[in-house]
Specification:
Layout lengths: L9 H18 L7 E6 L3 H16 L3 E2 L8 E6 L4 H20 L4 E6 L5 H10 L5 E3 L7 H11 L3 E3 L20 E5 L1 E2 L10 H5 L3 E2 L2 H14 L3 E5 L16 H9 L6 E5 L8 H9 L6 E3 L7 H6 L6 H14 L4 E8 L6 H14 L3 E6 L17 H24 L5 E9 L7 E5 L4 E5 L8 E9 L4 E5 L2
Parallel strand pairs: 1-2, 1-3, 3-4, 4-5, 5-6, 7-10, 10-11, 12-13, 13-14, 17-19
Antiparallel strand pairs: 8-9, 15-16, 15-18, 16-17, 18-19
The structure holds S-adenosyl-L-homocysteine (SAH), iron/sulfur cluster (SF4) and FE3-S4 cluster.
Length: 471
């Protein structure tokens, strides 16, 4: 029996918006515009959530600032994926002691994945008295109501009950910039990779309805957005919980066939669910970027099994071959974990050889970080941090070499790129992305931002390409 997705009644969101209007009256009564700061950690999903927090805050009358000393409300949207992310959050929340002292009445909220873990919510309750409001990802849709409680009763509010999560439509969104947009198509994860905290904090997989997604995409294109990224922890399982037989490839095609000049891409794909139909759809749809982020995590069958990834090395390599058959120009990127419990030198050598074989365009590499409550946390782990660091350094060196070599292959070629912003540096003052998501620095007129242009690549390094706009 598939999981039945729970939805939030649209009336409930309207009630939240009515609360925004009440807060608006309250916080703008003195004729001043109050300011809010939203500080985001973690993945694009969290960035997308922060756009909703800003949407609500804008309806409450808040303007935005990056300066915590100017902010009347600070929301820290946290990540729990690795210890490092959590330490940064705690350090930065701790530092807000100063701002709260300088600005009595400042409201500090901490939300997101980190606080959905019981021990972290407890820690904030006990050791961070400056924090007024704590809420998990499942409570985001009722942020206005929670904030109002803090404002009215001057009491700390904690809303982090265990939950599988729901789908809420109609939350106001405030996106920054006007070129690239995140578009969440589903939430949660059912995969339970043994190292990963995400399924515990983000709940079960649940898909938005295709008509809601396509309508949002259409609106973005009409507003002038040129680069749309469909987001989910595993977009390839999109639709499995819906009554209609739509799958991710169908959704991608529906978005890619919308009228307008734009590219559509997606993040992230679990290799076990990447299908031939998906590759074919990507190849056929002109507006679909030829880029797949396909996290392999390890090249060792033994480790992949212990990670509960549901594919082996051979199956992964087969998928890559198939995808490249459909798209010879495919840009392929990946994530790799080094030092999973019990990973031996031989296992690690398998990862290195897989990377040599595939030749990823870019690799995001992480040292394994123990997460409370995950199965891997209780697996024996005889290797030291220093052993893991050495492996990590070797992998980074290999990743950089391959990226550099792949980038060099672009030199002299003409590519179509989307100019997405200014670098703030001369002489290459503009940044742009290829269809496959490679970064290209350009010299040119900032009026080009938001436009697709043809460029010739003149030089490159490990991290980026450099080019000239064609006349
Ligand atoms: N849903 C995505 C990944 C989200 S987390 C997917 O499965 O593709 C992003 C990356 O963080 C993962 O791909 C993994 O490489 C890394 N990661 C997750 N948990 C980790 C942990 N406990 N320690 C180190 N890296 C981890
Ligand atoms: Fe984590 Fe695995 Fe889910 Fe990705 S697929 S979010 S790595 S459990
Ligand atoms: Fe972090 Fe949560 Fe994303 S744990 S990586 S912010 S889903």
């Amino acid at each position: 029996m598939p999981y039945q997705r729970k939805t939030i009644d649209p009336e409930e969101i309207k009630k939240q918006q009515a609360i925004c209007a009440e807060i608006f009256e309250r916080v703008t009564a003195d004729g001043q515009r109050p300011l809010a700061m939203v500080d985001t950690y973690g993945c694009q999903q969290n960035e997308a959530d922060s756009e909703k927090l800003r949407g609500y805050l804008a309806e409450m009358g808040y303007g935005f600032t990056q300066d915590e000393f100017q902010a009347d409300v600070i929301v820290v949207n946290t990540c729990a994926v690795r210890e490092h992310a959590e330490m940064r959050v705690l350090g930065n929340v701790g530092a807000l002691n100063h701002t709260k002292k300088a600005r009595p009445g400042q409201i500090i909220a901490v939300c997101g994945c980190m606080v959905q873990q019981e021990h972290m919510a407890e820690k904030l309750k006990r050791s961070y008295p400056i924090v007024d409001l704590v809420f998990g990802p499942h409570e985001l849709w009722r942020f206005p109501e929670l904030l109002k409680r803090v404002m009215l009763f001057k009491k700390r509010v904690f809303a982090t009950a265990k939950d599988d999560g729901a789908v809420a439509e109609g939350i106001p969104l405030r996106r920054d910039g006007g070129v690239k947009a995140w578009l969440s198509i589903m939430y949660g994860c059912n995969n339970f990779c043994t190292y990963c905290i995400v399924p515990y904090v983000r709940g079960r997989e649940r898909s938005r309805l295709p008509e809601d997604i396509v309508a949002e995409a259409r609106g973005l294109i009409e507003e002038g957005y040129k680069d749309i990224t469909l987001l989910g922890q595993n977009v390839n399982s999109y639709g499995k919980d819906l009554a209609s037989p739509v799958d991710f490839a169908d959704l991608l095609r529906a978005v890619a066939e919308l009228p307008g000049d734009f590219v559509v891409r997606f993040m992230t794909s679990h290799p076990k669910d990447a299908t031939e139909k998906l590759f074919q759809t990507m190849a056929e749809c002109e507006k679909c970027a030829h880029h797949i982020h396909l996290p392999v995590q390890s090249g060792s069958d033994r480790i992949l099994k212990a990670m509960n990834r549901h594919y082996d090395r051979a199956a992964y390599l087969e998928k890559v071959k198939l995808a490249r058959r459909y798209m010879p120009d495919l840009v392929l990127t990946t994530d790799i974990i080094v030092g999973f419990p019990g990973e031996t030198e031989e296992d690690f050598a398998d990862t290195l050889s897989l990377c040599e074989e595939v030749r990823f365009d870019a690799m995001f590499t992480f040292i394994y970080s123990k997460r409370v409550g995950t199965p891997a946390a209780s697996m024996p782990d005889p290797y030291t941090r220093a052993d893991k660091q050495k492996r990590f350094d070797r992998l980074t060196e290999l990743a950089n070499r391959i990226s550099g070599e792949k980038h060099a292959e672009y030199e002299g070629k003409t590519l179509r790129v989307l100019v997405d912003g200014e670098t703030g540096k001369e002489p290459y003052n503009l940044s742009s992305r290829t269809n496959g998501g490679r970064l290209v620095h350009l010299k040119g007129d900032p009026a080009l931002i938001g436009q697709f242009v043809d460029v010739t690549v003149t030089s490159s390094n490990t991290w980026a390409l450099y080019g000239e706009v064609n006349a």
